[in-house]
């Protein structure tokens, strides 16, 4: 099963970077998100593919046509928060207020419930167990925020690596974690890794896995975007490597594979055989209760069903 997803944010929505951190300063930057999203939608239409778009509430508020175009094309609209702040830097109350604001804006634009969420920077970590409970209480049914190893802005070591359940005090939440290649624990299906590695290697690694979760941003394919001031050499590399050829590589991937959005992935999975992640009773940390022995085979069957 291969799931196609996008984080709809603008080129200046970079985490942990002071010159672009203040949401009050964002209106002074040139917005490029509309043209970038339209280009993606045109490519998906050419290849008859469906995707889930996790949209920033701030972008939806200022560029409502972007969200309406996504919805009109038949894709799923999820939330990526309102102000693109990392979850582990927020209080529970601030997180819930940001989440509610983003959901309200997106629901008003589409007239549909918003039931899918991805945290900025995959920033739900083992230190923020309350975030899952907040998502359930806000009406979120499916999360795609777990990055099951260390990463720059968060990461959740020991988390599940296949779709499964997360238990919270308010109920269960479906989880679609970021997929990592079993060869080297690399998220080759999105971001800088996708732009860096050649298509042949990416396709080979993707074919090895029964579950692939992709993630892209309009800026991944925007060779004309301004350079963000003040980035370190490493962050410049991470932000801009492979951008000029990124869209052609993206289209090669669309030709090579069939994808589903999160909604369709939910329908295809037998959730009775999915693993469950929960807090350890009376102990610090989390545990993953394995699925049945044939769960991996079930994912393979779902990918071809």
Topology diagram in text:
Layout: E1 2-3, E2 5-8, H1 33-47, E3 52-55, H2 57-62, H3 64-72, E4 76-79, H4 92-110, E5 116-117, H5 129-137, E6 142-143, E7 150-151, E8 154-155, E9 164-168, E10 171-175, H6 191-196, H7 199-208, E11 212-213, H8 233-240, H9 243-256, H10 262-268, E12 276-279, E13 286-289, H11 295-304
Parallel strand pairs: 1-11, 2-3, 3-4, 5-6, 6-10, 9-12
Antiparallel strand pairs: 7-8, 9-10, 12-13
Helix pairs in contact: 1-3, 4-5
Quick synopsis:
With 305 residues, this protein is of the alpha/beta class. It has helices spanning 33-47, 57-62, 64-72, 92-110, 129-137, 191-196, 199-208, 233-240, 243-256, 262-268, 295-304, and strands at residues 2-3, 5-8, 52-55, 76-79, 116-117, 142-143, 150-151, 154-155, 164-168, 171-175, 212-213, 276-279, 286-289.
How would you describe the overall organization of this protein?
The chain has 305 residues and is α/β, with parallel strands linked by helices. It has one domain (2-304): Glycoside hydrolase/deacetylase (TIM Barrel). Helix content is 37%, strand content 14%. The strands form four sheets. The chain has a six-stranded mixed beta sheet with strand order 5-6-10-9-12-13, covered by helices on one side. Strands 2-3-4 form a three-stranded parallel beta sheet. The longest helix is centred in the N-terminal third of the chain and has 19 residues, at 92-110. Residues 298-305 have low confidence and may be disordered.
């Amino acid at each position: 099963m291969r799931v196609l997803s996008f984080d709809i944010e603008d080129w200046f929505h970079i985490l942990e970077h002071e010159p672009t951190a203040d949401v009050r300063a964002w209106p002074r930057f040139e917005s490029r998100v509309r043209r970038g999203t339209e280009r993606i939608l045109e490519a998906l239409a050419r290849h008859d593919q469906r995707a889930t778009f996790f949209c920033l509430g701030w972008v939806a508020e200022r560029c409502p046509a972007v969200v309406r175009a996504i919805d009109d094309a038949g894709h799923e609209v999820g939330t990526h928060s309102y102000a693109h702040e990392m979850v582990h830097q927020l209080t529970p109350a601030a997180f819930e207020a940001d989440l509610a604001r983003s959901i309200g804006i997106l629901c008003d634009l589409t007239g549909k419930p918003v039931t899918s969420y991805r945290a900025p920077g995959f920033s739900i970590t083992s230190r923020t167990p309350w975030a899952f409970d907040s998502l359930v209480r806000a009406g979120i049914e499916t999360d795609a925020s777990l990055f099951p190893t260390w990463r720059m802005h968060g990461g959740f070591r020991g988390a599940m690596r296949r779709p499964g359940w997360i238990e919270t005090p308010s109920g269960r939440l479906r989880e679609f974690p970021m997929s990592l290649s079993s060869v080297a624990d690399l998220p080759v299906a999105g971001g800088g890794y996708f732009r860096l590695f050649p298509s042949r290697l990416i396709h080979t690694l993707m074919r090895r896995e029964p579950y692939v979760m992709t993630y892209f941003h309009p800026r991944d394919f925007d060779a004309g975007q301004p350079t963000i001031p003040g980035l370190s050499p490493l962050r410049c590399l991470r932000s801009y490597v492979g951008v000029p050829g990124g869209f052609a590589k993206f289209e090669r991937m669309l030709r090579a594979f069939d994808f589903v959005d999160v909604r369709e992935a939910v329908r295809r999975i037998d959730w009775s055989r999915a693993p469950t992640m929960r807090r350890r009773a009376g102990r610090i940390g989390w545990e993953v209760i394995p699925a049945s022995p044939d769960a991996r085979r079930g994912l393979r069957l779902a990918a071809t069903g």
